[in-house]
Structure prediction request, 385 residues.
Amino acid sequence: MERSTRKIALVGIILLVVGLIAWIVQLTGGLLAGSNMTNVFLWGLMIAVFAFLVGFGAGSQFVASAIILSGKEELKPLARIAGACGLACVCAAGVAILADLGAIRNALAMIVGMNPRSPLAWDMIAMCTFIVLSIVQLAMIARDARSVKVWAVLAGLAALALQIVEGLLFSTQTAHGWWATPIMPVDFLAVAFVSGFALILLIACVKGASSKALAWLGCICASAIAVHLVLALIDLCLMFFEGTPESAGILAAVGSNILLYLVELILPFIAMIMLFLPKNRGQKKPAIIASILVIVGIFAHRLMLLFPAYNAPSLYLQLSGTDFTTGPYPISTGRYLDWDLTFANTTPYFPAGPEWLAMLFPIGLALVAAVVILFIMKKLQKDKS
Prediction:
């Protein structure tokens, strides 16, 4: 095992152990004991981590499929790494969902009582399909089988379907205006391309890939960033020109998280400029900096997926028969008091300390799983030879 790989495994184990301890605390004390989640804030930080990891998983598979189908020999070693990262991230995302459920037994309800009309059911089916096809594809890569291109296409289509379903999972939640937009599934696809190519670009720099490979990965990553930023700005403009109380509430919630929102937009924008500059193409140092900026920016993007959605009123109501017949009343982020004519707002959602620590569990698991998968593939290659 290479020295860089051992370091990644060590970091992954440390994150996994710290996160696992925090998760066990949540399991024993309940989610409310170790988080700021309530009956109002149903989806916490772990859902953001779930979307973060799924995006990197699907995006890494896009990279693997593109390399295999292109037939570029100089990129062939990266296909194995990209496929392993894709499988590891999606499996770790599944664990993040288990952590968010609060008790592992709750996962049985999703299987036994599956509703085929529910986007959650589609999501589970899409994830399982992706994992199976990804495993077969990696086995074909390790064996250098002739049918590897067929499995690369199937795994790529599964990744495509997974991201579309993820986007639908949020965009069908009409009670939250920040999510209920047809742009959401398309942006999930764009973010997956950004995430996957940025991750593999960073790994390619560490592995000492050729300048041609770095230029190819960087160009696609920068193009995907451009699409993502355009979609984000279109969504913001639609909210601004809509002019409804709901859209005004969403914009106010975005404004209350303006620093995080700027990180989400500015860091990928800087990375895009760095990767598009002719003098930086194929250069290792700019590629590393740009990749790190993208990863941080995408994580901020996933955090922004939650905060404005939950910190903005999702329903406005006018109470007749009172002195307050013209004002909007946010009822989804507050509680009704019998002795008051209005709804009392709750404090905005922000993850508690144990939530941040538990978040490290699936991230560490993804790192360790990727190393283990690559080790198994190496053993399969040796057995064949």
